[in-house]
Specification:
The chain has 819 residues and is an all-beta fold.
Length: 819
Amino acid sequence: MTQGGVSVPLARDPLASNMGEPTIVWRPNNLTADQNWPKPSSDATYQVSISNVVVGGQSRSFNYPVTIIDPQTVGSAEQQAEISGSTSPASGTPATYSFNAVSIAQQYEAYVAEIAAASGAYNAESNSLSVTDGTDSSYTLVYSGSGSNGTNVYRLAHPTVNALSETVEFVDTYIPASNSVLTFDSKLGYATSAQTAALQVSVDGGASWQNIYSKVGVNGITESSFSAKTVSLSAYANKLIKLRAEYRFAGSGSLYTGTGTNVSFLLDNVQVTNAKKVVTNSTQNTGSNTSFAFTPVNGKQYALAARAIPWAGYPGLEWGPLFYAEAADSNVDTTPDAFSFTAQTNVARSSEMTSNSITVSGINTAAAISVTNGSYSINGGAFTTSPGLVSNGQTVRVRHTSSANYATKVDTSLTIGGVSSTFSSTTVAESIDTTPDAFSFTAQTNVARSSAMTSNSVTVGGINAPAAISVSGGSYSINGLAFTSAAGTVSNGQTVRVQHTSSANYATKVDTSLTIGGVSSTFSSTTVAESIPMIFSEQTNVLPSTLMTSNSITVNGLTALVALSITGGEYSKNNAAFTKAKGTVQNGDSLVVRHTSSSRSQMAVITAVKLGTQTLTFKSTTMVIDTVPDAFSFTGSTEVMPSTPVESNLITLAGMNTPTAISVTGGEYSLNNGAYTKAKGTAKAGDTLRVRHVSSSRSQGRVTTTMTVGGVRGMFVSTVMTLDTVPDAFSFTAKTAVALNTVVESDSVTIAGINVPTAVSISGGEYSINGGAYTKAKGTLKASDILRVRHVSSRSAKKSVTTTVTVGTVRALFKSTTQ
């Protein structure tokens, strides 16, 4: 089962055994067995397909549509019963009215209602209009002490989760006009999103309801105070409607329960204005007859309607249009004096036009009023298109929208009690305008000499009558017809081109001037400039692997825009970025090309540039390449400290004409005073080089670093000095009569006779160098360092403690003796 091509979910009911015929029963859209089909807003068609049905031993399929309708709603192609008869029936005697037959009707019903201007309000006070209480019995509808105007208010609440719909229905039946409004004051307290307060309207006597105002809870306090609301009833103009308020719980989810005003929907001062209400009414079943009668009362107004009943027992289709009548006695006069509207001329197009005001006279009771092709207003009220009633002495105006065309009349006919008059407006005549909008021709340049040149096409606009056209210095064509130089006329919307012969000379302009209705424009063509040779100069003896840029040339000699392409390089047009992409070029453009020269000696590279069918070349040839530098050497360093970085003198490379490979072994190099590196690289003439290495750790040891440039080697050698690690003899003065178990410090000695840092060690105490911290760890010292030792004296009297310190291979003792 599908609707609009979309599958509808189905639930198939099981077949009860031993009961009824073998049938298939299913429920669409997950409807439960106790649910009614929801009322459709419009006719809805479903496509049903049943397959594999075995009939007479054969499998068959069935496909058919099912349309769900609301029989109380009038469709676009459906008929309604429309009443005809007197709008001013005589009082006290039966008045007969008829209506058209409806093809599907078996019976008809007629509705007769006495109507009057709507007045009063539903305010829960003692003077309130009547209501019907549809609330739970556990609380009262009227609550005292919370009204927005007075003491009482209508209260709708959800005392329990089972109180799904709490209502109060306003008893009167109303007939709104196009300017009718519903006003009320309300407040919704604590409410969840599953609780909705609404004002509703019914057009079928209360059989069904639809919201015209709603407020959904916000899971807290929704409105902290009363506020006035206004709802237009214009959508229900000339229909019988009923009104009610509802407070609904969705049936699932959370809700605020109770009957306190803080969890209720409170309503006050409900009022309908600018409308009629039903005072009394009756319904007649006319059987198959299409007429009915009733006895009107003098001075009373009535609303009449009829509807079809498709079959006996059905409540009937929607009521047809309301028919209004007002009863009159034998002296009633509803035929007014003649009246007229003043025609308006030379009015603006598509403008709202309002007639003069006429005063209704000559009637003694309300007369029917209707309008065709416009709207009317009584006593300055809102304009309306609906039929109504007008009384003696009231004023009436009509209005309509003037024509969108020039010099065109629009009529609006007003009928009062059978007397009619027409209000006319005629738009202004179109003025003659032969001055066109500005137009222009695109100039053409670099055209061929002595050639027929045709302009772009322009469309004539801004005129409403034929305009004069003339040309000088050429000819013109209208709408693609033959070219002519004779003066003529042209109309709005036509297209025009001009033509002339280009100059026989180079770089020369020819002008053709076209004039339409006094407005002129010039078409120009300029011939191509005389050709100048375009040559990229050859470059020789260039450096290898170098970006070579050509001289700039100016493009000339072309007759049109041509394609531009390049092979073996890049181009720049008009100083833009270099590119290899295809493009276009025209006279006046500047071109520069470039490529990278060959990496080999005396080798050419050629770049070809193609301009249309013409090819230009740019050539570069490398020099004779010399990568062998002049011999170079580094000055050796002697008497250097052991294990120390040693840097060579700086040398400058010469004798080669192209970048040359360089490498180093046994050290690092610095190029042009840059960072030292061991990596291979390149250098060129004029570059400076320096090398370095770490000297030998041995006495008179040598380290060699070899720098190779283009096959030529230069060496840097460093030689370590003769190492002396045997200091001059030194000694510490013994100390006597020292305190027991006390730190005893020696005199200081200055180390001499060594030329490199020399090992120092100690036993039986600690040493300090240059006044630093005492330590037992092995270390080094150098010439001129000051050495001091210490130990703890003996715990016994007249006992000695000895500390031995060794520097290089020389030992010295420090001895202390206790007292």
